[in-house]
Design a protein that fits this description.
The protein is an alpha/beta fold. Helix content is about 40%, strand content about 15%. The strands form two sheets. It has an eight-stranded mixed beta sheet, sandwiched between helices. Strands 11-10-9-12-13-14 form a six-stranded parallel beta sheet, with helices on both faces. The protein is globular, with a radius of gyration of 21 Å. The two termini are about 35 Å apart. About 50% of the residues are buried. Mean pLDDT is about 90; it is low at about 380-384.
């Protein structure tokens, strides 16, 4: 039996976890790589899930998860320093791992990818979005993120992007060719109302669903403002954990308290998550900034009618198979909400085609195939 091709994953907070899109992608890729006979080490950050330790399912140091070796890297609790310290320590550890490739995820961790290049190690970087644009970061964090972006553009052997908009940005800003490999999605099994009825009093088609991290760039404040001005018996369900945005969470909670129709579930996973997706009347993603929203892919895979902000990253995903509104425009969001709430036949038409469209367009096996080609230095064409 020959030596296994060895891969290191650096950039995720923790796997297995749904703390963000990066974690979902790393988990999906890593488990499939192991199934194909690759050896994968995932460098997890120490600490607990951002929504509380009760959601933490991370293996301890030296443990394996679905064939993936989990290596835990110590980090500071300070959110501003967490990613950069983690990436530095994970990179130093990875230098001694005899990896065939180190795969960095997200701009912050990419700040350290020049180090393995000094030692001749192959490096692949996935840019999940232009993170420095996100509202939650201060001046220092934004600098680190932009530096990581530059390091990826200059030093990575291959750069993967999740949207055509970001591919264009790298070409225009750094004259760097990148590979467009969007995320995949699994075909889900629909679940009837059970736990969400018991826990939150929800009924099928009786609520509008927002599911994402509670951070400013996801645009939840627009949705709450528009919903509060909309006459409907349906509830607005807000599901998602925090991500070092305490002031924003307080703002959202204060807004939600003024409308008894708003239900805040905090972070959800497992069967509760599946039931929420399966039974929503409408899924809304009002983002100002996105990379490629996993929650949007998942919502469409469950056959939901989706209403999204018209940023390029969202429209690239949904095409003509979802409704949209002008980014940041509360009045237009309210108008679209009212239209969809009063036109059930339009909602049903969107629902009918959503799952087949998204599941045929985005496939994890195709993502895996293209990524493995880059690991081994093979390309179909120069500009990916």
């Amino acid at each position: 039996m020959g030596k296994k091709f060895k891969v290191a994953m650096i950039g995720q907070k923790r796997i297995p976890s749904r703390e963000g899109g990066v974690e979902v992608v790393v988990n999906e890729l890593s488990t499939r790589l192991c199934e194909k006979g690759y050896a994968v080490d995932a460098y997890n950050r120490s600490g607990y899930h951002v929504s509380g330790k009760e959601f933490d399912v991370t293996g301890k140091k030296g443990k394996y998860y679905k064939g993936i070796r989990i290596i835990v890297v110590p980090t500071f609790r300070n959110g501003k320093l967490n990613a950069i310290v983690y990436s530095f320590l994970a990179t130093l550890r990875a230098l001694f791992g005899r990896y065939d490739v180190i795969h960095y995820h997200a701009e912050g961790p990419c700040a350290m990818l020049w180090i393995p290049k000094i030692f001749g190690i192959r490096v692949v970087a996935t840019i999940h979005g232009l993170d420095w644009q996100r509202a939650k970061w201060g001046r220092f964090a934004s600098f680190v993120l932009k530096f990581g972006e530059k390091m990826a553009a200059k030093h990575a052997d291959e750069v993967i992007v999740l949207s055509k908009n970001v591919r264009k940005y790298f070409k225009e800003t750094y004259q760097r060719n990148t590979h467009y490999i969007p995320n995949g999605i699994n075909v889900p099994a629909l679940k009837p109302v059970n736990l969400i009825g018991e826990k939150y009093g929800l009924e099928k088609d009786g609520y509008i669903l927002f599911l994402a991290r509670l951070v400013p760039e996801k645009g939840l404040h627009y949705l709450i403002e528009a919903f509060r001005e909309t006459e409907t018996d349906k509830k607005l369900v807000i599901s998602g954990g925090s991500s070092h945005s305490v002031d924003y969470i307080k703002k959202i909670e204060a807004m939600a308290e003024k409308d008894s129709r708003i239900v805040m579930t905090d972070f959800v996973q497992g069967e509760v998550l599946e039931e929420l997706y399966s039974n929503a009347y409408l899924f809304v993603l009002p983002s100002d900034v996105e990379g490629m929203a996993i929650s949007l892919l998942e919502a469409m895979s469950y056959g939901n009618c989706c209403l999204v902000s018209d940023i390029a990253e969202n429209m690239e995903v949904v095409g003509s198979h979802a409704a949209s509104f002008r980014k940041g425009d509360v009045a237009d969001l309210r108008k679209q909400l009212e239209y969809l709430l009063s036109h059930g036949e339009v909602v049903e038409n969107y629902k009918k085609g959503a799952s087949d469209f998204i599941c045929s367009k985005y496939n994890w096996e195709e993502v895996l195939k293209k990524t493995c080609m880059l690991y081994k230095g093979k390309r179909r064409k120069k500009n990916g």
